[in-house]
Amino acid sequence: MKRSALGLNVLFSLAALALAGCATESNRALEVQKTKSAVQAEAYRGPRTTIFIGKFSNRSNYMRGMFSDGVDRLGGQAKTILMAHLNQSGRFDLVDRENLEDLSREAKLKSEGQAVAGADFAVTGDITEFGRKETGDKQLYGIAGAGKKQISYAKVTLNVVSVKTSRVVYSVQGAGEYELSSREILGTGGDASYDTTLNGKVMDLAVREAVDRLAEGFETQKWKAER
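Request: output the structure for the sequence above.
Response:
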């Protein structure tokens, strides 16, 4: 009996080592999607204007219910995405106003005076629509197969406001939809779990669409600095 127990222990140890030996690690860089204006930024030779990003708020019903803690995380996420895409477009000189106090402190530490650039326009934004839903279907009560879709939708509005006159000189909207589908047939196939990254993906898509329309309007001089 002792020999049998010893043999089982050895077998279990060997099995554990074999499983540990099968562990693998991998990674890969993913291409980040850009706006059309960002792709064409190097070839752009037109005028530029100085802008800063003002308030960006979530006006949709998403994450604004009774149990919300009052922190506008969705608006903050959209503002970060907007800043990156506007800067990459090559049409605008983007100035940072949120970190002005920190920048001023660093300038003092270096004993350097600041020459903060003034902006011609403020770009404000709102998330006007946002939501997600799950739909599914079954064939022969699920015996022959079942499918599930996760759909996320977002719509944003951007307003260009003249710093000189406080007049809204241009407005654009952008919308996007992301869908994740899975289907299982006779017990085989994928069953996608709830994907939280869809929120960020659809927000990025909606903001990209709005930024491209903003850049197109600037190129065609539908809005320009008021002198």
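Residues 184-189 have pLDDT under 50 and may be disordered.
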